[in-house]
Amino acid sequence: QMQVTESGGGWVQAGGSLRLSCEASRRTTNKFAMGWFRQAPGKEREFVATITWSGGFTYYSDSVKGRFTISSDKAKNTVTLQMNSLKPEDTAVYYCAAGTRIITSRLRIGDAYASWGQGTQVTVSS
Q: What distance in Å separates the CA atoms of residue 118 and residue 97, rounded to the nearest whole number?
């Protein structure tokens, strides 16, 4: 079972920036993707962003597009989520997820990812 470990997060005022990082315990090339999901109190988990290892294609939710950037370092099996222009509604626990054999149409679906981190809190104050 692949392990994923998140780091980063914390507290920031609205308009500020934070960076999240995630490391996977091993490498794979079979339609591998790593992404971020988040869950705010009382709400369902939602997709934030993901990146494919093959081709480096990135996908974002409409709510973060233009403000967040996901990138990967294949040599280190890591992904980074740079979050700029943060808003109070971005407050949530952010989870890193990794998976293999994920087809494009399922990249935004949490159930397609087999490995999940413990989550890291991001709090944006107004």
A: 10
